[in-house]
Amino acid sequence: MDTIGYEAAAASSTFGAVVIVVGGLVLVGVLIWAVRLGIRVKQREPRTPRGGEHPTLPDSGPVHETRQRREPDEVPRAEETGRRLTPHELGSTGSRRSGDQTRPRWDRGSSGSFGSGGPGGT
């Protein structure tokens, strides 16, 4: 019987198993190193406030609300341009400051909106 071939086959399969185990250990080591590096980088970043924590005031002091009435920019009509506009030609829906800054008030006796009940207008 020729045992040299069997011994060579057994040695190569043992060598292959050792290579797989060593490669797996190297891969696990690289993954552990990457996780530890990520944790260190995350600890160096500034922390954002969590839920329930209040942010601090800016150096310039508190920011106050401003109220203003806005009116939409007009969209050109098809009769003016001679053709219909496509969506990408419309752009963003802009608005501008209204010339009349008085707050709108409802008339006495009007419902204010549809279906809210009430006696309606006179």
In words, what does this structure look like?
With 122 residues, this protein is mainly alpha-helical. The protein starts with a helix and ends in a 25-residue tail after the last strand. Strands 1-2 form a two-stranded antiparallel ribbon. It has 3 helices and 2 strands, in the order αβααβ.
N-to-C span:
117 Å
Radius of gyration: 37 Å
Please provide the count of β strands: 2
Q: What is the succession of H and E elements?
A: HEHHE
Structural class: mainly alpha
How would you write the strand order of the largest sheet? Answer: 1-2
Mean pLDDT metric? 78
The helix content is: 40-55%
Q: Give the DSSP E fraction (strand runs of 2 or more residues).
A: under 5%
Low-confidence stretches: none
Which geometry do the CA atoms define? elongated
Largest sheet: 2 strands, antiparallel
| Number of DSSP helical runs | 3
Please supply descriptive tags for the structure shown above.
122 residues, two-stranded antiparallel ribbon, mainly alpha, elongated, single chain, transmembrane, membrane, transmembrane helix, DUF6479 family protein
Provide a quick synopsis of the model.
This protein is mostly helical.
Question: Which helices and strands, and how do they pair?
Answer:
Blueprint lengths: L2 H42 L25 E3 L5 H4 L5 H4 L4 E3 L25
Antiparallel strand pairs: 1-2
